[in-house]
Amino acid sequence: MQTRRLDQMLSRYGYCSRSEARIWLRANRVTVNGEVAKAPDQKATPESVRIDGNPIECPDGLLALLNKPAGYVCSRDAREGPSIYELLPKQWSCRNPPVTSVGRLDKDTTGVLLVTDEGALVQKWASPRGHVPKTYEVTVEPQFDPALIDTFASGRLQLKGEDRPCLPARLVIISPREARVELTEGRYHQVKRMFASQGYQVLRLHRSKFGEFHVDDLEPGQWRLLPIAHYLPFRSAK
Fold first, then answer.
1. Domain ranges within the chain, ordered by starting residue
2. Would the CATH topology of 4-55 be identical to that of 133-210?
3. Alpha helices, DSSP H, located in the chain
4. Is residue 134 pLDDT above 50, yes or no?
5. Which CATH class is domain 63-128+214-226?
6. Whose C-alpha in 52, 87, 171, 214 is 20 to 30 A from the C-alpha of 104?
C-alpha cells in the first residue's frame, strides 16, 4: 500500500480534519511503527499507523451491511427525518469520501442496505446495467388476484409516467395479501408502483435479499462489516 502524509491519512479515514492533525500528533495519539509521530507531513503506510493504539479502520475501503429499520431515510438532509447514518459510526461519515448507501430504500421500507465509501461498488451494484437480483417481501390490500403472477412475469407491465415496460419479475403469492417479489431492476419506488399500477396498495415492504446479501442474522438497525477485498479483488492499493 502506498505511503501518504499523516494529516492526509487522518482526514481520509475520518479521524479529524487535516488542520486538526497537528493537535492529535501533539497529544501523542498517533504512532508509526511503534514510534510516536510528530510531523503532519510525515509519510507512512496505513498498516504502520496506530491511532490511540488501534489500527486504522478499513484502510482498503469500507463496506458494511445494514438491516435498515422503518422510519429512516437514506439521506443526510435533516429535513427528511432520521437518517440511516445515525445508526452507523459517526466517523464513517467523516471519511473522505464519506460512506453512502448503494441505492436507496424508502423511509418505510426495511431490510438489506449496503453502505460503502467505494464509488466503484456503488456503480457496480446500483447501476441499472448491473441487473442485481433483489427480493422483497410485501403485504398489500386488497387480496391478490392470481392473474397478477402472469402480469408481473410478462415484461409488459407499464409504470405511470414511463415509456419503457418493466423487465419480467417473479411474483410468489404466499397468502391472500402477502407475496414475494424477485426483480433485477431498481427504478424509483418500483415495487410500490408496480403494485399500484394494478390497483394494489403496499402496506409493508421488506427487502430480504440484494444480490448475495441478506440480513437474516441482523436485528433492525444493526450492521456488520464485510470484507471489501472480496468484492474489489483487482483494485490497486491506495
1. 4-55, 63-128+214-226, 133-210
2. no
3. 6-12, 21-26, 90-94, 119-126, 148-153, 190-196, 228-231
4. yes
5. alpha beta
6. 171
CA dihedral 71, 95, 92, 32 (to 10 degrees): 180
User: Helix (H, G, I), strand (E, B), or coil: what is residue 23?
Assistant: helix
pLDDT in tens, 34-70: 999 999 999 999 999 999 999 999 999 999 999 999 9
Q: Three-state SS string across 178-194, please?
A: EEEEEECCCCCCHHHHH
Cell of residue 179, nine digits: 407475496
Superfamily of domain 4-55: RNA-binding S4 domain (3.10.290.10)
Residue type, 88: L
| Side chain identity, residue 5 | R
Q: Which helix (H) or strand (E) holds 84?
A: none
Q: 3-class SS at 35? A: strand
Which residue has 435498515 as its cell numbers?
Answer: 68
Neighbours of 37 (CB within 10 A): 21
Let me know the angle formed at the C-alpha of 172 by 167 and 176, rounded to the nearest 5 degrees.
Answer: 125
